[in-house]
Amino acid sequence: MTEETITGQLEEQEFSINMGPQHPSTHGVLRMILKLKGETVEEVKPQLGYIHRGIEKMCEKLTYAQTIHLTDRLDYMSAHILNEAVCLTVENALEVEIPEHIQYIRTIMDELNRIASHQLWWSAFGMDLGALTTFFYGLRDREKILDIFEETCGARLLLSYNVPGGLMFDIHPNFQKRVKEFITYFRKKLPEYDALLTGNPILQARTKGVGMLTREQAIAYGVSGPSGRGSGFSCDVRKHQPYSAYSKVGFKEILYNEGDSFARYKVRMDEMWESMSIIEQLIDNIPEGNHAVKMKAIIKLPAGEYYQRVEAARGEFGVFVVSDGNKMPYRMKFRSPNFSNLAAINTMASGQKIADLIAIGGSLDFVIPDMDR
Amino acid sequence: MRSIINYLKEIFGTVRALLKGMGVTGYYFVHPREIVTQQYPENRATLKMFDRFKGEVVMPHDENNEHHCTACGICEMNCPNGSIEIISKIQLTPEGKKKKVIAKHIYHLGMCTFCNLCIKTCPSNAIIMEQTFEHAVFNRAKLTKVLNQPGSKLSKGDKK
Ligand code: SF4
Ligand code: SF4
What we know:
Strand content of chain A: 5-15%
Number of strands of chain A: 8
CATH class of chain A: Mainly Alpha
Order of helices and strands of chain B: HEEHEEHEEE
Structural class of chain B: alpha+beta
Radius of gyration of chain A: 21 Å
Oligomer: heterodimer
Mean pLDDT of chain B: 84
Low-confidence stretches of chain B: none
Structural class of chain A: alpha+beta
Strand order of the largest sheet of chain A: 1-2-3
CATH class of the largest domain in chain B: Alpha Beta
Bound molecules: iron/sulfur cluster
Number of strands of chain B: 7
CATH topology of the largest domain in chain B: Alpha-Beta Plaits
Order of helices and strands of chain A: HEEEHHHHHEEHHHHHHEEEHHHH
């Protein structure tokens, strides 16, 4: 919709304003056209396209092994989980049996990735609401995970660690030791997060009852991940359709029924504890094995359609591949969690103040390149 | 009366919660040893990246200026974004046979996404990842590199 039509609809005392594309709280280039009455938000219209790279189209000209490095660049905060989604799609299509060694490492990496992502979310959420301290504390602890990644995968953020049929390298000899050190360390540091921010009355005043999303609305909009679970919508793919080693570990699906920004905050905080317990269950029991299954040099999927979903840090991520039997996909479609989560923002923010929109956006934990592929 | 009590309660609760938060920051204020900031670039001499860190693709040469690249072009084919260009030439061997050798192994550092596919697929392990990371230059042309050194040739052990 163009701006003319928006201003055309304005009534007396209403005005429209652009939030973004360069607004610091969107952590990327997201433009939201707001219809305001005084300070009250009447309508939010997200406008995408500022960071569109045509990744789905690019995938049609790449082999399956090559598409993986592009999925890093969707939700860069859950790069490993997204890589895994593509690998699982290919492996399931070819009916390759993945040994437990690989499955365990993938699951541990997934959870480390999830913790790192939630740490950054916590840091940035605090910062959006005016608590700059959180940013330093969150990044301090995230650094430890990034070091683990760097030692094993060779990269800190865009890992490209999965390949169809396994992993790029085997884990580094220090991996288990470092992960265990990190868990011990972070179990001590996570309560600091609560002391700093969770109990803070300013945070609570700004998030409790702000950005309500009922369970029905969450389902209707397809809001998944921690944002959906904050509305009581049980949507954890790890529970409902376990992949890799998730069927072998015990963990709780965190559900809060309030549906406000604070509930979404609590879901993520509790998920970090759950992720740590998942890692602890696996880290000592990684079976011996090879880090990759022998695959053909040129991978061709049999003609057909394949879909695989995984639980990324922000919600359900899906890969849909249509193959015509060639070495490149005929069509590759990504179902990205952030795009669906963004769809609910108008429902959540209308009637609230403009400052609440920042809190709502923060509690949805946007990663713009994932919406706008 | 009740509302005043509630109001005061709220104020005290708020102050208590804020003090709790400041307790954490205060702890680090008096324990500077636990602060983990790295003083880059002052610590350049001691800063060592992990062995697997993917910084830049290089082609190692031995003391005789010999490398292992056979100009097969597999890395070029596997690179997802065209960061590698293989320019080969035909050379006559002493026995008079024609042989393809590498003329230029061109690597565009500015386009590389460090996916590691070229290194993983190279059949003769001719290229590796170097751990350098200070890649900023003033001129973009400097990011295009020729990996095989001038005058270098294929290592003896690798004859096809
Ligand atoms: S670097 Fe390796 S893959 Fe590339 S042309 Fe040389 S031998 Fe072939
Ligand atoms: S690391 Fe990846 S992007 Fe870079 S040159 Fe090698 S194959 Fe190309």
